[in-house]
Design goal:
With 546 residues, the chain is of the alpha+beta class. It is 53% helix and 9% strand. Among the domains are: 62-233 and 328-367, no CATH class; 379-542, no CATH class. It contains 20 helices and seven strands. Strands 2, 3, 5, 6 and 7 form a five-stranded antiparallel β-sheet that branches. A two-stranded antiparallel sheet has the order 1-4. A hairpin with a 2-residue loop joins strand 5 (509-524) and strand 6 (527-537). Helix 7 (177-198) packs antiparallel against helix 8 (206-234). It is globular and about 90 Å long. It starts with 17 loop residues before the first helix and ends with a strand.
Length: 546
């Protein structure tokens, strides 16, 4: 038995039954099987109860926080963590602790770097700064005790809710929520299993089994992001094989270059060469990606296969970054933690119940946790919405998405207007579409457009742009520069493509305007060529030279 302080109590040698003592033989096989079945059933019941608590509490505490309540809730969370400080990392759960410590530390660092890039009511900037550093301090404490991982996890989801409320700009949770889900599952397990031990319910062997099942459940929930992204590709309206056989994945390089994200855009000839190599092998590349995503439901059944597949995923993420600028760095770190954790397991293979749990959480985790479904066709097009800054001398600068800091991802994705009359129909972030017919039409630059029944509504977006500029002026350095690249973005604008704007004294900006261009893209003589099909521009907003 283990006490709440983690000290192991001495166990008496196993006492043989009277039958064993007199006969010298072990218990009959049928009795042993009955005992094993009863223990398995009890363990399974505890696991289901643990997962129920995990989901119910998650739904109550994730999100739904106002700017005024962020600090009080952070303080309350630290108090709760302090009350639970005697719960240690269990020696039977080294792998679980490895992942939870890593997740907490990553989120704590993220909290410090992810400062709010918007104005807050008087007194709240200091309160929010305190909450950020409390999250980091708790993350450091989580290296010692699991309960302190509570604030880094909750602060991340709370801050996203505050960002959205404060800016009016919605932000996708895809890059961070899977990390929170894994950390949350493991954290609740540490606290709950310790509580069960206090009431002396666990039998020998049950504790290590519960920890293993919890780890595999967390990995399964994460693998569901890959599996259902593969399923999303199979379910595209062009047919199950259309994504593999007809999707030109290299097209994302065109869109990301035009939008200013492509990391290798500084070397145009090299970028075109890479694009041609991808196009020449696109069916093989697509098949490998799809197979890797769908195999997650099978590979989770064996430790060595989990490690191999997770390595493949990280290589895939690094390739995606090189070809598009989309950097799933949080997923990459989580995957590295999973690799390290699984390598610590003293198992060559899992038993049947563990396999069932892994497969089940990969398949049905979406019912309880956030699950990404990343499946679309990549087209040689872009519905390009961007902001132009005009300085006092009349010079025009394209503003990189990174400039908008907390909201940069939404500017990257271009999801900024309530409707798109007169522009590409069904075309989303970086030229992606889920319409097979639109994908084919865009290949000929003969796209379907949304009927133009009304003028585009730029009012809300222009208001945000002006408010953000005012915030930037108050937080610029002595030269009037805003160091927006020193921020934990999900997608980084290529700094070499926006050097002039980066060096522009933001106090010299006289106004902004929003531009929307629906355009077809292609390579031509080592350069990016564009054909603008439709264009709109806002009337602009004046900064009054502030």
């Amino acid at each position: 038995m283990v006490s709440i302080t983690g000290e192991r109590e001495k166990r008496s040698p196993r006492i043989r039954s009277d039958a064993e003592s007199h006969s010298g033989h072990a218990l009959p096989m049928n009795m042993m099987n009955t005992n094993r079945s009863a223990t398995l059933l009890t363990t399974a019941s505890l696991f289901l109860l643990l997962m129920t608590v995990t989901v119910v509490v998650r739904n109550q505490v994730f999100g739904g926080v106002s700017p005024h309540s962020l600090l009080p809730l952070s303080v309350l969370t630290v108090v709760i963590s302090g009350a639970l400080y005697r719960v240690p990392y269990d020696l039977d759960a080294r792998a679980n602790g490895y992942v939870l410590r890593g997740v907490a530390l990553m989120l704590g660092c993220y909290a410090v770097l992810n400062y709010p890039s918007y104005s807050l009511p008087d007194g709240l900037p200091t309160a929010h700064a305190v909450a950020r550093y409390m999250a980091f301090a708790s993350a450091v404490m989580a290296l010692w005790r699991p309960a302190f991982a509570l604030l880094p996890i909750l602060y991340t989801t709370w801050r996203k809710a505050v960002d959205i409320e404060s800016t009016g700009i919605d932000v996708s949770p895809t890059d961070y929520m899977p990390v929170l889900e894994v950390g949350w599952i493991l954290l609740v397990a540490f606290l709950s299993i310790r509580l069960v031990q206090i009431v002396r319910v666990l039998e020998p062997g049950q504790k290590s089994t519960l920890y293993l099942w919890t780890l595999i459940a967390a990995i399964g929930a994460h693998f569901g992001n890959y599996f259902y992204s593969g399923v999303a590709k199979l379910l595209l309206d062009g047919g199950a094989s259309s994504w593999v056989l007809e999707n030109n994945t290299a097209n994302i390089m065109l869109a990301s270059w035009q939008a200013g994200f492509l990391p290798i855009a500084a070397w145009p000839a090299f970028a075109q060469g890479v694009s041609e190599v991808v196009q020449d092998h696109v069916v093989v590349i697509n098949a490998l990606v799809l197979a890797g995503q769908l195999l997650s439901v099978l590979f989770i059944a064996r430790p060595a296969l989990i490690i191999a597949l997770t390595v493949f995923y990280d290589l895939m993420h690094l390739t995606i970054y090189a070809l598009s600028g989309i950097f799933f760095w949080k997923w990459i770190i989580l995957n590295l933690l999973i690799i390290g954790a699984v390598s610590k397991l003293p198992l060559q293979r899992f038993d049947l119940p563990t396999k069932v749990i892994g497969v089940s959480f990969t398949l049905i985790g979406w019912m309880f946790f956030f699950t990404a479904r990343l499946g679309w066709y990549d087209t040689a097009s872009l519905k390009d919405i961007y902001v132009e800054a005009v300085d006092k001398r009349g010079r025009v600068f394209r503003v990189p998405s990174n400039y908008y800091l907390n909201s940069s991802l939404t500017f990257t994705q271009g999801r900024l207007l309530p409707y798109w009359d007169g522009h590409f129909s069904g075309v989303d972030s970086l030229g992606s579409t889920k319409s097979y017919s639109q994908m084919k039409r865009l290949g000929r630059c003969d796209p379907e457009l949304v009927p133009r029944e009304r003028a585009l509504d730029f009012s809300s977006l222009e208001g945000f742009v002006l408010r953000h500029h005012e915030w930037g002026i108050h937080h610029a350095d002595a030269s009037g520069l805003v160091h927006y690249d020193r921020f934990p973005h999900h997608v980084w604008s290529n700094p070499w493509l926006f050097e002039e704007f980066a060096q522009l004294d933001k106090r010299e900006v006289a106004g902004f305007r929003v531009v929307v261009e629906s355009k077809c893209l292609t390579w031509k003589d080592g350069r990016l060529s564009q054909q603008v099909v439709s264009r709109d521009q806002s009337s602009g907003v004046n900064t009054n030279g502030q």
